[in-house]
Amino acid sequence: MRKTFLITALLFLGMGVQQVFAQTTPAHALKNVTIHNADGSVTESATIVWRNGVIEAVGTNLTIPFDAYEIDGGDSLHVYPGFIDGYSIWGSPELPRNLPDLDDPGNPPYDRAGIQPERNPSELLTEDKSFEAAIKAGFTTAALYPNGYMLPGSVEIFYLSDDHNSVELLSDKVGMAGSFDTAPGGWGSGAYPSTLMGVMAKFRQVMFDATALQQHIKYYSQNPEMPAPDRSRVLEALFPVINNEVPLYFEVDQKEHIERLFKLQDEFGFDLVIVSGKEAYAKADELKRRNIPVLASVDFTDAPEWYKDMKKEEESDDSDSDETNEEISEEEQAYRDKQLEAWKLEVANIKSLMDAGVQVGYASAGLELKDLSGKLETLLEESGMSEQNLVQVLTGNTADILGISNTHGSIAKGKNASFSVFDKQMSEEKAKVLHNITNGIIHELIGE
Amino acid sequence: MKKLLTLCVMAVTFVVTVHAQEKGSVLIKNATVITVTNGDLENTDVLIRDGVIENIGKDLNAPRGVETVDATGKFVMPGIIDAHSHLNGVDINEARNPVTAEVTMEESVDPNEVGIYHALAGGATTIHLMHGSANVIGGQGETLKLRYGTTQDGMRFEGAKRTIKFALGENPTRVHGQGNGIQPRTRMGVEQVVRNHFDEALDYKRKREAYLEVKAEYDRRGRGTPPVPVAENLRYEVLNDIIEGEIYVHCHSYRADEILMLMRVFNDYGIKNYTFQHANEAFKVAPELAKNGAMTSVFSDWWAYKFEVYYSTAYNASILNANGVINSINSDNNQLLRTLNHEAAKVVRYGNTTVNDAIKMITLHPAMQLGIDDYVGSIEEGKHGDVVVWSGHPLSIYSIAEMTFVDGKKYFDRSNDPDDMRIDINPGTDFEDGANFREIVTRRDEDACLQDAFILMQNNTQN
Amino acid sequence: MKKLNIFVVAIALLFGLTATTQAQITEKPEYGKFAITGATIHTVTNETIEDGVILIEGEKIAYVGNNIRVTGDYKRIDATGKHVYPGFIDGWTGLGLVEISAVPVTVDDAEVGQFNPNMYAFTAFNPHSAAIPVTRVSGVTTVLAKPRSGSISGKAAVMDLWGYSPDSMAVKKSGALVMNLPSSTGGGWWDNRSEEEIKKQYDRQIKEINDFISKARFYDNMMKAYESDPSGKTKPDHDPRMEAMREVLSGDVPVIITANSEQEILDAIEWAGQQEGMNFILAGANEGWRVADEIAEAGMGVLTTTLYTPSRDYDNYQRPYQNPGLMAEAGVKVAIVSDDTENSRNTTFEAGYAAAYGMGTEEALKAVTINPAEMFGVADKIGSLEEGKQANLFISDGDPFEPLTNIEQVFIKGFKIPMQSRHSQLYDEFLDRDAVNK
Q1: Which of A308, B79, C129, C435: CA 20 to 30 A from A253?
Q2: Contact across the interface for B434 and C188, Cβ inside 8 Å
């Protein structure tokens, strides 16, 4: 009964906000909710007050300003800091297909080599249903990068919305995206670099070329009588990486790839954020030593079918279970033992990294949002992570890594009003997001 | 300040990544020891301590804590060295350009390949992981010890010479000329690709050095005319390293004429350390090879699978050996790598090479060709403890490798040999999943050299 | 008997004359009456004879034993301390059909079309292939040259490795019919078909094969009916493909099915079990050890190799070497083959590995002699050292599986083969290339 009332009230307010906001900037107050903050603290019967996208006050027994729309959580709702996706492809245009063959595939133009650091997501954003799904899943903020290959473009941070037109830039060119992807193209249309070792070599050469160009530009500014440099948007886009002004966000999973990346870092000294990092656990100590954070993917392998069956059987364990036990060979049993061990290591990746003291945030890195809740559930069940760990990874840690922790990643006074309202604790079965507040704007999700 | 900081970070990293290899100790007792350089010693013990052969003699006592292996009636031979392998390359051919000196197999090592264990079980301890033969000047090679279970860095053979792959004849002309319509399409073109790139590299070096000189001067004085920067060029740097003798060339080649061609070119540029790989027609120019100090690394009996090996012979190795050419027998194939001892034995059959010379072709000679003969390739005090215990004489078909040691550490033991030796397990693959089925490599699989490049040719062979 | 021999000599000389106008690969062989004395004779089918004698008369073995006085009309070959073995049979090779595999115009083992029972390897077998002398001087005297394309590739031929024409070399023109069944499993990581697609494709292809065989049975029955009593019947049209199936349907010519993985083998056994009256052999059988009992029960012989890498990531490293022995132990008749062309000679070492890894020398020896001879229905002519059989044999200075052993003299169909090949000739020419200048 109480709940019905509340929902109606919210609906009404939600609709009203858009009109009133532009003129008088009234405040909002969400009261009688349980706040689960990034640092693990839980505050019951709490109130959040925000205005113009900024949290004015948060806590218990607050005096709600006279000009605030009050929303009563009725002590049944749970509020979390908005989830932040540290590296996502949402809104990126499709890559061109059927590339024409090159006359000299050994010397392709930069774009055909997969080198496009001059591209920025803010200039490319396109329609993508994922934005709506992200809001529904409790994401309020995301770092986006453009779809591409070895150096696909810059990383920029956005306030999310359910429509790409209202996704707003929060911070531009915070990093440079990178991967070991080879040049695009098929049989006839492929180009150098077409292998991992080729990508390594090409990366180095681009860095050398950018370094030389920067030097040339500098010399030219000192001495305009010398030959002018050939300006290059592509190479110049790399200057911030060379100058350690922004980190390279590098998408790697295999431990061997991470080692290769260390090697490049040793050579060029750039700052580094590892993205996805499914086998990063194997390099945890080295990551810690190098102070490299990981924006981890939770897109680990599904549990082996036989393991799922086994667990199901255990749950419904009754006297009739023995008939379902299939006979398997010793060889297969040994195989399964190894398989399960490998799977558990993969699932425990984030936990292992955290235990080793590596800073771990979250990156969807290609994971479809519909699969997220299942993956998080598995993490809670199988990896020894608590809900608090998860929240920390999805909010505070990611904000830290992206360099926006002064405004994002927790619910506190002065921070950006980006948080989401769950109908129960997020770790509970079938928990769902009722409302998502991004940059103070309320996204109404009821009934969908 | 920032730069200084970066430098500090780099220095720290350096110290830590040079981590100690795992080394072991063992006393192998009462074996027939095939030393390679000092004859076969019967009823002899070999003591390996901390990875190094410390003593070879009779009635040696095991130092405290050192395991003893009774090898009575058995043979101990240096670990087999394969001068031509693609066993665990992530990629083999960067085939989109005829010259790719800048790429290196060091960055294409998969340390988890279970075939490494299979090779150990065949008595191999070191391989030369090579770039393929799609390009006239291919990528750099990497000499690896088969330390199964370690990282890609952990497999590196510290102290080995740098190497690079060249390729002449059908493969580069098919991939680039026939495939992409660019030079080389002929053996004439192959020569010019080599010469042009060496010349370009020398020009680059001159300009780059001049730039660095003027730059240093300008930066120091802070006035004058600044130089136009010449970017560091990885490809040309490597080509200059070849010319300066820092890199050993391993050249895929078959026909006698192309072997002569490359020797002429190398003489012109003063390049001295090189090995012709495959070199099925090397026997036709054995005197010239010997005169130039060129080495060869050949198959024991492969021939006729392509036109440029049609007029060749299984007696190739014996002819080369008799003419004083340092020759090795290689595998270029993951199955032959498991049975290289018997590939060497064929050299005795075809041309009456002595047994010890045949064994040299899979131990000391490949070691010389990789620049690691100071460390491995024979059983001598002070060399690495890379040895194999064989059930009988290693050239007998009935002889089976029983234990394989690398740096004194036992990596294979037939008496403790579980079936499933994978170390990198994909949990998404179920027992009966097709992903567990390996592409079988038979002893007749001549395409390894063109892996990754093959699609380029298939695409175009109809033309 | 004698007359026939003379006739053969005449034929051989005739062919020899015509052949001398072509580039000659080796010198001429000797032919006639030979006595090999003092050798250890490995008969394979009977006891091994110490200090024995083999008499060769014309193309046949006239005597095997150690209790005979050799008369003066035999050319004596003193083989004291040496060994005599039946010539090895490589039961699975492209030899004679493929000269240079990378040069398509020299590749004659793969005809276009799915159903080609009327393609005869015999026809395309090139007696002058440079690889033939290379092979025979290593002790392989007879091969099964096989076609390989489509569902039904054609007929493989049992060929001796001496002669100037396929006719003079053929031990059996129709040695076996070669078939390739579709695979019911995915092909590994490079196969991106879905399970459903794979199943559908498999079912469709199997149906095509079954339809073809049904048609052949119908044709065979129809022809039999006509042939037994043509009166009052219109003669049915001749169909060369159907005609070629008749000797297969009757079981006179065996069918070789290529199958390597466990599932492929089981599929082949199941499919073969549904075919009445036909004889089956498996070729490949890399994973035969996993289903050795099933193969034995199906009564299928196997043509297999040893020198390949394990077929599964989690297999023991030595499984390929053990495979022939494990199958033989389960009661499967095993032939060890080269599965090679220009290096058919390595059949010897393929067998050597099996011998070393559990099969034993004696069984491995059978696997390259009498077993394939029996499978291809030519055991009355070759495969062992017995009186009346073809004189296909070699003299060695030791165990022929050993690479250090020298094969000293080869006889094929009574011809004392010159121990030369392109390989040895190049050796002779280039060992001391510039000797002429010195």
Answers
A1: A308
A2: yes
B183 CA: distance to closest CA in chain A (Å): 10
Higher-confidence residue of B456 and C427: namely: C427
pLDDT at B165 over 50: yes
b/e C355-389 (16+ beta carbons within 10 angstroms → b) = bbbbbebebbbbbbbbbbbbbbbbbebbbbbbeeb
Q: Which two tokens stand for residue C95?
A: 């030899």
pLDDT at C190: 60
Q: Do residues A67 and A17 share a domain? A: yes
Q: What is the mean pLDDT of residues B332-344?
A: 97
Domain that holds residue C369: 88-382
**pLDDT band of B224, cuts 50, 70, 90:** confident
Residue ending a domain, among C344, C367, C382, is C382
Band of pLDDT at residue C347, cut at 50, 70 and 90: very high
Residue C248, CA distances (Å) to A155, C93, C112, C145, C258 in order: 69, 21, 21, 18, 16
The CA distance from B71 to the nearest CA of chain A, in Å, is 32
Select the residue of B121, B305, B345 nearest C342 (Cβ to Cβ): B305
**ipTM confidence score:** 0.93
Residue B244 forms part of a structural domain: yes
Dist CA A282 CA A287 (whole Å): 10
Q: How many domains does chain B have?
A: 2
Q: Is the pLDDT of residue C330 over 80?
A: yes
pLDDT at A7 over 60: no
Give the containing element (helix H, strand E) for C204: helix C195-228
How confident is the model over A257-297, as pLDDT tens digits?
999 999 999 999 999 999 999 999 999 999 999 999 999 99
CB of B436 closer than 8 Å to CB of C314: yes
CATH of the domain at C127: 3.20.20.140
Q: How many CA atoms lie within 13 A of A353 on its CB side?
A: 29
Determine whether the interchain pair B91/A197 forms a contact, defined as Cβ–Cβ distance below 8 Å. Answer: yes
Catalogue the E-assigned strands of C66-169. 75-78, 83-86, 88-93, 140-145, 152-160
Instruction: Say whether B233 and A223 touch across the interface (CB within 8 A).
Output: no
Find the domain containing A419 and state its range. 2-81+411-444
| Mean pLDDT across A100-104 | 94
Say what the pTM is. 0.93
Assess C403–B contact: CB distance below 8 Å, yes or no. yes
B130 and B216 belong to one structural domain: yes
CATH (domain of A125): 3.20.20.140
Q: Between A183, A205, A342, which is nearest B425 by CB? A: A342
Looking at chain B, which residue has its C-alpha nearest residue C408? B349
Residues C269 and C361 placed together within one structural domain of the fold: yes
B306 and B172 share a domain?
A: yes
The secondary structure of residue A393, as a DSSP letter, is I
> Both A14 and A162 in a single domain?
no
- Asked if the structure places residue B1 within a domain, the reply is no
Peptide bond between residue B184 and the one before it cis (omega within 30 degrees of 0): yes
Q: How many domains does chain A have?
A: 2
The answer on B171 and B55 residing in a single domain is no
From chain B, the residues in CB contact with C131 under 8 A are 304
CA neighbours closer than 13 Å in the CB half-sphere of residue C8: 18
The predicted structure's pLDDT at residue C104: 95
A281-290 pLDDT tens trace = 999 999 999 9
Closest alpha carbon to C399 in C411, C387, C407, C388: C407
Structural domain of B129: 80-375+436-458
Task: CATH number of the domain at C25, please.
Answer: 2.30.40.10
pLDDT, residue B160, reads 98
